Each structure stands twice: as C-alpha cells, then as structure tokens.
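Allow me, if you will, to draw on your knowledge of protein folds for a short while. I have a record of one protein: its chain in single-letter code and its fold written as discrete structure tokens. I remain grateful for any guidance, and I place the record below:
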Amino acid sequence: MDDDVYDGFGDRPIGEFAVASPLASGTQRELSRFLRRVLRQDPIPGLSVAVVRPDGEAYTDAVGSRDLAGNRAVSPDTLYPIGSVSKSITATAVLQLADAGMLSLDDPLTDHLDFDIKPGASDGPQRGETGSGEEPVRIHHLLTHTSGYPSLGVSEALIARRTRRGEPGIPLGDREDFHAHVADAWPERTAPPGDEWQYCNTGYCLLGEIVEGHTGVAFSEYVDDHVFTPLGMQRATFDDGEFARDADAATPYLIDEGELTPASLPTREVSYPAGGVLTSVREVGTYLRCQLQRGSLDGTQLLPTSRSDQLHEGRVDTPAGSYGYGWRTREVCGQTVVGHSGSVAVSSAYAGFAPEADLAVAVAANSSPEYPLRAIGEAVLAIALGERPVVAVPFWQRRRLFARLTGRYVSYRGVKPAAVFRDGGTLRVEYGGPLGGGSVPLRPDGTGSESETKASSESDSEPGPQTGTGTGSETLNCGDPTALSDGDVVTFTTLPPDGTEGTAEFRFSADGIDLLVDRWHLHKVRDDPLQLDADRDRSVTSRDR
C-alpha cells in the first residue's frame, strides 16, 4: 500500500475514523503515565489502548515497541492476536444464524454436528453421566461454558506446540484428530449440562463448526463477511500470512523466567472461533462502539437490539462475574462493565464496555504477563471515569499493598530474619537464621479489626503457561494502600503446613511496618526481600530493637 495513504491507519484514508469528544487533558496525561508505569514494572514490550464512546474515539495511545530488535514503536493500529476476546465475535455469528432461523440456542449440539460426541453410549453409563434421560449438551451450554466439559487442553496443546514450549503428544493435526479428541473426552465431563461453569475453549471451536455447517463457508470467511466488513474492520483477520505481511504487526514475545523471547505466532485453525482473531485496538474499539449501540454502528445493524442484549446478558455466576455469551459482567467503579480478556501466551488483550457510562476500552500487548489484561483495561476505564486504579480496581489495590508489605524483616536484636514475598494472589513469609524456620503462606483478609474478605482467582484467557497466577477478583477493603499510616492494620490468615490457621498482622506506625506472625514480632528494614541472612547485621544496625 502507498505510504501516503497508510500513514498509520491501515488501508483507510485519514479522516474516516469517527472522533468523539476527547477525554480531558488531565485524564489523558494520567493514562499515559499509568501505561508507561506498567511497562516499567512488567515484561510487556508494547501496549496499545483505545477508549471509545458510542459516537467515536475519545482517546488512543500506544507505548513501547512492537519489535524490540528493531525498536519499532507500537501504535493504536498495531495488529495483535487478541485471543479469547474473539469469543464474543463467535457468539455474534451464532446469534446471527439464530436470528435468521437457521438454529435455536436450545438445540442439542448433536443436531448440528456431523460427528458423535458421545461414543460408546450403548455400553452403559460412563463417569459423569446421569443415565439415559440426561440433559443433552445444547448450543446455549457451549456459549456459556456450562456443557459439563472441563478444559480439554486443545488450545494449550497447540499453543505449546506452535511456540515450541513442549510437545504434549496429542494428535491434533487436522479436524478428524480434533473430533477424536473431543469424542474420547466424554467420560471427562464433571457435571450434567447446565449445572456448572467450567471455561472450555473446545466448546467455542465446536460453535465455529456449527457456523460452517449452516453457511457452507469457512468460519473465518463468514466472520469476515458478516462482522468485520460491515463494521469497517478492514485489517481484522484470522490469516497469519496477512498478519505477517502487514506494515504494523506486533512481534509476539514469550515470557521465560522474566525474560522476553521472540516467538512465532501460534495460529491454530481449529481454534479460530475460540481465540483466533488478529486485529488492532482501534478496530476492537469500533467493535465496542457497536456493543455500546446495542448491535448497530452508524446505520449498520450487526444484530437486532434484542439479540445484542441477549449476547451481553449474564447467565451463569462465576468467581469473577456473571458470564453470558462470550462476555463477562463485572462491577468497576460502580459501573456495570461487560468485557472479556484473551491470551495466546505470546500476546494478550482485553475489550470491555460500560453501557451506563457510554464508555468502552480496548487494550492489547505483545506478551502475556502473569495477569489477564483485564486488569489494565479496568484501570484505564477507572482513570477515564476519574478514579484511581489503586483504590478502585482490586488488582492494582492488592498489587500496591503487596509492594508496601514485601521486603526484609528482623526480630528483636536481629535474632530471627525473615522475608515477605509476593506469591501470586497471596504473600509468603520465609524465615532465615541459623535454625531456619520454613515458609508460611499468608492469605489476605482485609484491614482493621472488622474488615474481612474472601479471595478468589480466575482467568478468562486462553490457556497459557503463565495463566492463573495473581488474577484475583477479590476486594481487600483497605482503601488507598498508599495512604496506610500510623495505627492502620492489615490482617492475613496464616496457612502453616500442619493446617492450623492463624493470624498475621501488618501494623503501620510512624516508625515503619511491623509484622506479628506466629511467635515473632518482626520489623521491616528493607523493601528488597532477597538475601535473608546476608544483610542481617546491617539491618539490625539500621533498626536495632
């Protein structure tokens, strides 16, 4: 394409993008500072963001590099794999077919597939079955992850294979192999259909086959014709060749022990419907504008309003919010937010919208940090709404609190050194000294004498090596962690090896932070939790109790 036409906006001439009233300049500065702070803290080469209103873009930004070796900058138009953000697009295709009368969401799955997902049924009940009168797996169950199937590992196995992270030894070379893998998994079901929510990429792969069966075209071709093209998402694709040829495509990076390593794009045709879309945050922003307008965009009707509402409606409770058809509903800053994260181990993304605030956020990165990008997306939304993420978003509240609590501690006269480490969504205290003392996990409870909360974790991203650590939806109820001061107390539950739970208290005072745990009264002396014994003498000198 000609450089004077491209100019950072794909193959659309400048001026075709609808621009809404921009965010306030102070809000934009705060967003920029936040994004740059994230890149300084986490192994993310590049990060792109778009904030939109129903009538157009309100803010776009990009920080970092899409390719570290060439130091080429990311932009709002950089293409990324967006992983499971693709699921709502698949759900949109299914609802389009339902609206056309080609299927009903209550139809049994077996009415629409050309292979048997229940082999050996004549041999009698198998593990997970309830008998011959059992509820069949329906299309609705696949859309809501309530089919009874746990994750069957298809995406994880193929991502590992494509990124050379290990060979699971599962035949998945073609569609026939995939069908055999699904059929053999019938005994693995853990509940009758509709009874339990268990995230399962395979269900969305099967939905893609249903779309193909009814339309007679490849799933990717159907989505291009009925979702991307109507919305003007001209660079969105499933094709890794198109991605590689694009002038502004991100280099994917694996995170290996904190180091970034360039990786190949883990394209998996069988998983296109579960997480195969390649696009930019600007184009995801366009898609989100359609969600804010309940199925239409600038006169183009993607779904009737009633079907769009059906798509977004929460239908089954999960630890991190109610799940609908490829969307999850959560509360952020007092707003109902409908969104979804995605990860393919070398890239990650988030798309979410707050209908009552008429605001939506798209975020993408060319690596997958230890948390889903929902955490960044919700922080961007919080800032756009005039809130501070460290107070309004549980993930950032917890992270900032943990940053204050982790470090090296010593007891009276330095007899017992200890260190507090962050360990996913919990803390861990390790004891040093000549007699050692082991390690004890600390589960957050809250602050003060009356605050008590539950911790839970989830991931709505495609499986990857890093998924599932430190991604809780918990509320710590500690207000602003940066403001904790003299007299404030943060309590944790200790989980020692013998199973006898106890209490650990971090007490803030004018002198610093004290930790009361087990028999010890410990005093924080350094922020760095490493080298328990090496600096004990210097630590005692600096704060001799």
Observations:
- The longest strand covers residues 56-67.
